[in-house]
Amino acid sequence: MAVPGRRNGVMGDDDDDDEILLDDGNALAELDLEPDVPPHLRALFEAVETGNVDALRRALDNHNGSIDEPVEDGDTVLHLACLYGYFSCVQLLLERGASLEAKDEEGAIPLHDACASGFLEIVQYMLSFASGPDVITRMLNVTDTEGDTPLHHAARGEHLGVVRLLLAAGASPMKININGKIPADLADQDTEVRSILTEAAAAADAVQC
User: Fold this and answer.
1) Above 90 in pLDDT, residue 206?
2) Which one Pfam family would you cite for this protein (predicted)?
3) Taking the CB of residue 134, how many other CB atoms lie within 10 A of it?
4) DSSP symbols for 126-171
5) How far is CA 201 from the centre of its chain?
6) Which of 150, 63, 65, 147 is nearest to 101 (CA)?
7) For 18-86, what is the HEC assignment?
8) Residue 25 has pLDDT above 90, yes or no
9) Cα-flanking dihedrals φ and ψ of residue 181, to 5°?
10) Mean pLDDT over residues 94-117, rounded?
11) Whole-number Å distance between alpha carbons of 44 and 95
12) Interval 108-156: pLDDT, tens
């Protein structure tokens, strides 16, 4: 899962590190710290990184390869749109055939990114866009290399609305990651997210018994 240095075009406090003073002391030059994106995917990457849906549409029109080809850290453009929270880009990519189940180099699907960032509208749209209940079940249960489901990511981020939505869609509150943690274990103590997930896990355990 890629980690955005800038979100929605806003520069962070550390972005000044991207600049260096030239030898003559008269000007600043920015270092090129962009990831090593293949040239034929550069237009797609730049459009989705900035959330420019018109540029993304043009880039897709001119793109001859797979829409699910990784552009950065194994992430597809749909992963990145979900990570940055660009809803209109997510809509366009899904309309153009982007896969909801494409995995990045850490085994995460785009839903992991949207849940980790707490983008409720995107999560809801992707679940509604899925072609059927079997696809939704797979999306909710898929685990990354840490054994985390999308619900684990939503719990870790304390995203209450996303947690509620995932549980209502059928996400398991009992799934254990490689560290032996269920989603409730990843939420902070004495929070509503922790309480809801703990109750859901207890209810699921009672049904199993």
Assistant:
1) no
2) Ank_2
3) 9
4) HHHHSSSHHHHHHHHH---TT---HHHHHHHTT-HHHHHHHHHHT-
5) 24
6) 150
7) HEEECCCCCCEEECCCCCCCCHHHHHHHHHHHHCCHHHHHHHHHCCCCCCCCCCECCECHHHHHHHHCC
8) no
9) -105, 135
10) 98
11) 15
12) 999 999 999 999 999 999 999 999 999 999 999 999 999 999 999 999 9
Give residue for tokens 């679940």: 127
Dihedral pair phi/psi, residue 105, rounded to 5°: -70, -10
How sure is the predictor about 3, in pLDDT bands with cuts at 50, 70 and 90? low
Q: Right CATH number for 143-209 from 1.25.40.20, 3.30.70.2190, 3.40.50.720, 3.40.50.300?
A: 1.25.40.20
Amino acid at 205: D
Is CATH 2.60.120.260 the right assignment for the domain spanning 1-11+34-132? no
pTM of this prediction exceeds 0.70: yes
Distance between CA 92 and CA 115 in Å, rounded?
A: 19
Q: Please determine, for residue 185, whether its predicted confidence score (pLDDT) is greater than 60.
A: yes
Residue 40, token pair as written in the block: 């034929």
**Exposure class string for 157-185: b at 16+ Cβ within 10 A, else e:** bbbbebbbbbbebebbbbbebeeebbbbb
What does residue 19 show for φ and ψ, rounded to 5 degrees?
-115, 150
The Cα–Cα gap between 44 and 59 comes to: 6
